[in-house]
C-alpha cells in the first residue's frame, strides 16, 4: 500500500509552514528513533534525545508536488524564500554534475571473526550527513538498488522531537494517531533541495523541473493577485 504523504500547510496565524508528522505509524514515511533504532512511542515515553526520521518526498506518482514540493511552493508564495534564494538554488542545480549514487558504493568487508562456522562480514553503506544549524540533520544513504543493478540514494530528514509541538511531547507516551507539528526554516528547505540535487541525476533533474515550473507558475499567480 502506498505510504501516506505528510501534510504540509501554511499557518496564517503564526506565518509559518507547518508539517504534521505522524508519531504512531511505524510503517509510514515517519518513524521515531532513539540512538538510530525505532521506538514504540505508544508504549515508551518520548525522551529529549529522540528524533523523527522522515523519508521526505517531493512529488507523488502523478508528478504533483507533495511534502518538500509543497514546502517550496509555500515558501515562495509567502516569501520565506526570496527570488535570489531560488535563483541561487537553480545555479547550484545547473552546476551539479556528480552524484552520490555514482560516486559512492556499498562495500562488503571480511573480518577475521566466525560465528557457528560462518565467516563474519560487514556491509558498509555510505552516509552523507548535513547538519542544518542545530535544528535538523539530513542524511543521504547509498544502498543497493532493489530489483536492479547499481546503487540508489535515499534522502532522510531527522527532526528532534523537542523542536515539535505540542511542547509536552517529551516525557510522555504518544496518544493514538498523534501528530507532531514542526515548522521548517528556509535553511532546511534549501538544504533538502541541495540534498536531492546531489543524491542522483534523476533527483537533480526532478528538482530542476520542479523549481523552473514553480518559478513560472508563481509569477503568474502574483500577477493575478495584483
Ligand atoms: N524519492 C522521493 N523521495 C525520496 C527520498 N526521500 N529518498 C530517495 N528517493 C526519493
List keywords for this structure.
226 residues, alpha+beta, six-stranded antiparallel sheet, three-stranded antiparallel sheet, 30% strand, binds adenine
Secondary structure elements and pairings:
Layout lengths: L6 E5 L4 E7 L7 E5 L2 E2 L12 E4 L13 H10 L5 H13 L4 H4 L3 E9 L2 E7 L2 E6 L3 E9 L6 E10 L18 E4 L3 H14 L1 H25 L1
Antiparallel strand pairs: 1-2, 2-11, 3-4, 3-5, 5-10, 6-7, 8-9, 9-10
Helix pairs in contact: 1-4, 1-5, 2-4, 2-5, 4-5
The chain binds adenine.
The site of adenine has 5 residues, from β10.
Distance between the termini: 43 Å
Overall pLDDT, averaged? 94
Strand content: 25-35%
As for the number of domains, it is 1
Q: What overall form do the CA principal axes indicate?
A: globular
Q: What structural class is derived from the secondary structure elements?
A: alpha+beta
> Which small molecules are bound?
adenine
Cα-based radius of gyration, to the nearest Å: 19 Å
Q: Compute the number of helices.
A: 5
Please count the beta strands (DSSP E, at least 2 residues each). 11
Strand order of the largest sheet: 4-3-5-10-9-8
Question: How would you portray this structure in words?
Answer:
This protein is an alpha+beta fold and 226 residues long. The protein has one domain. Helix content is 29%, strand content 30%. The chain has helices at 68-77, 83-95, 100-103, 186-199, 201-225; strands at residues 7-11, 16-22, 30-34, 37-38, 51-54, 107-115, 118-124, 127-132, 136-144, 151-160, 179-182. It has a 6-stranded antiparallel β-sheet with strand order 4-3-5-10-9-8. The N and C termini lie far apart (43 Å). The chain binds adenine. Adenine binds at residues 55-57, 154-155. Adenine (ADE) binds next to strand 10.
Amino acid at each position: 500500500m502506498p505510504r501516506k504523504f505528510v501534510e504540509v500547510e501554511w499557518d496564517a496565524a503564526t506565518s509559518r509552514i507547518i508539517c504534521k508528522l505522524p508519531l504512531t505509524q511505524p510503517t509510514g514515511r515517519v518513524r521515531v528513533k532513539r540512538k538510530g533504532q525505532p521506538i514504540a512511542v505508544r508504549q515508551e515515553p518520548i525522551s529529549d534525545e529522540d528524533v523523527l526520521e522522515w523519508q521526505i518526498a517531493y512529488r507523488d506518482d502523478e508528478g504533483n508536488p507533495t511534502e518538500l514540493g509543497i514546502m517550496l511552493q509555500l515558501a515562495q508564495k509567502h516569501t520565506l524564500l526570496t527570488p535570489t534564494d531560488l535563483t541561487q538554488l537553480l545555479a547550484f542545480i545547473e552546476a551539479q554534475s556528480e552524484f552520490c549514487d555514482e560516486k559512492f558504493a556499498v562495500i562488503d568487508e571480511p573480518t577475521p571473526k566466525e560465528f557457528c562456522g560462518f565467516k563474519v562480514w560487514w556491509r558498509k553503506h555510505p552516509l552523507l550527513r548535513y547538519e542544518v544549524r542545530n535544528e535538523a540533520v539530513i542524511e543521504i544513504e547509498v544502498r543497493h538498488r532493489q530489483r536492479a543493478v547499481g546503487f540508489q540514494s535515499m534522502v532522510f530528514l531527522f527532526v528532534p522531537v523537542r523542536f515539535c509541538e505540542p511542547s509536552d511531547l517529551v516525557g510522555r507516551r504518544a496518544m493514538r494517531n498523534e501528530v507532531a507539528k514542526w515548522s521548517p526554516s528556509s535553511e532546511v528547505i534549501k538544504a533538502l533541495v541541495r540534498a536531492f540535487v546531489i543524491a542522483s541525476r534523476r533527483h537533480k533533474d526532478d528538482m530542476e523541473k520542479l523549481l523552473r515550473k514553480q518559478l513560472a507558475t508563481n509569477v503568474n499567480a502574483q500577477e493575478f493577485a495584483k
